[in-house]
Amino acid sequence: MHFETRYKSHHNSSGLIGKYYPQKRLTEQEFLNKLKEEPKDVPRAIYVHTPYCDKICSFCNLNREQLSGSLDSYADYIVSEFDKYGEYRYFKEKSVDVIYFGGGTPTVYKNDQLEKILKSVEKNIKFSSEYEFTLETTLHNLNDQKIDMMNKYGVNRLSVGIQSFSDEGRKFYNRTYSKTETIEKLIQLKEKFNGEVCIDIIYNYPTQRVEDAIEDAKIIKGLDLGSSSFYSLMVHEGSTLSHDIKDSKVKIQDDLKREREIHDAFVKELTSDDNYYILELTKIAKKGRDKYKYIKTRNFGGDTFPIGVGAGGNVDNISVFRMKKEMAMFVEKSEYQQRLDKFSGLFQFPQIEKKLVNEILTSDEKIVFNNVISELKDNNFILEDETYYRLTEDGLFWGNNISREILTTIVEKTLG
């Protein structure tokens, strides 16, 4: 087994099952009827999307736009959504384990707008005893008042878009602040914020050296951060970077050997003293600290209730995607789709419990799966013991390819 192109995101595996099953569209009323039922006993998350930034990263084409006016109306819309859905049994009768504000930049709101939203969460949502409440942010969008406010309303995790500590890398990604300023800002943030401070790193920018990746990892350890994601740079159509490439202003190196060297150097350095471990394919966390419950809820068959324009998720067997304030798509997932989605989610992690695989797959699917695993073992992507399948160093680098390969083979061999 040999992979020519590396898939850099779990999204490369999603959507594969849908082509075998025509989508069954549902009405909003059918979705609301689901919220009137007794809530199921599954992990539950809320995802809140803010599609606005006041500064756009060079590589980004996500569902966001540059802030050009007041966000009063959008903040009021988010509040109204919490007020609306908070009246249903779905939220009244069962607590929520995770709430994740993504974007865009959720801290782009003014102080009073952010407080209005956080108050609506407090009013309408019951949290479980060990809940996780995350806001994505940039350093330049924070101030002392916002930090105090997040402490007050129970935000206990920040995901800070750093991308690179290198001055050259930060310039490439269109980040605010120099390396020295960024480190100082993170030190101040850790002193003032009561919860876990985590960051995002994007590696493999055109001029990056292996030494730059190692330095990023050393800084993360030195700052004692809760975790760091590490994504390889992806060029998205419509981003500033994609236009610069077309205009020959930037040349991206399509060099898997170089990408692998940078990836491995970062992972090796950050996990070198056994204080940090690989939590999932693109996340390294400090032991006993960041749990990243949001990704586990999404991948292990829990609910993710979506709020905000551009938000997607699911409640039980109903997938939801919100295109506009008053427009959403509701799709019913078959039992087969739900089962295979959960199975696919297992392979976002460096070790996969055999018991969970056996609980999900049918006997015919297990035969196909075991054949694929055998080939992956022969090619040194996976190791196996009595309890787990474990990704090797090669397996970690090619993790999304492996997930896609396993899922595609099972679907195509069993459905035809």
Give structural notes.
- This protein has 416 residues and is α/β, with parallel strands linked by helices.
- The chain has 2 domains: 1-21 and 334-416, no CATH class; 23-299, pyruvate-formate lyase- activating enzyme, CATH 3.80.30.20.
- 41% of the residues lie in helices and 23% in strands.
- It is built from 16 helices and 18 strands.
- A 9-stranded mixed β-sheet has the order 10-11-9-8-7-6-5-2-12, with helices on both faces. The chain has a 4-stranded antiparallel β-sheet with strand order 1-15-14-13, with helices on one face. The chain has a 3-stranded antiparallel β-sheet with strand order 16-18-17.
- Helix 12 (335-346) runs antiparallel to helix 16 (399-415) and helix 14 packs antiparallel against helix 16.
- The longest helix has 17 residues, at 399-415.
- It is globular, with a radius of gyration of 21 Å.
- The model is unreliable at 62-66 (pLDDT under 50).
Key phrases:
Radical SAM protein, pyruvate-formate lyase- activating enzyme, single chain, nine-stranded mixed beta sheet, four-stranded antiparallel beta sheet, alpha/beta, 2 domains, 16 helices
List the helices and strands and how they pair.
Blueprint (H helix, E strand, L loop, with lengths): L23 E3 L1 H9 L7 E7 L1 E2 L11 E2 L5 H14 L3 H4 L3 E8 L7 H14 L2 E11 L6 H9 L4 E7 L3 H6 L6 H14 L3 E8 L6 H14 L3 E6 L7 H7 L9 H15 L5 E5 L2 E4 L6 H7 L3 E5 L4 E4 L2 E7 L2 E6 L2 H12 L4 E3 H7 L2 H16 L3 E3 L3 E4 L1 H5 L1 H17 L1
Parallel strand pairs: 2-5, 2-12, 3-4, 5-6, 6-7, 7-8, 8-9
Antiparallel strand pairs: 1-15, 9-11, 10-11, 13-14, 14-15, 16-18, 17-18
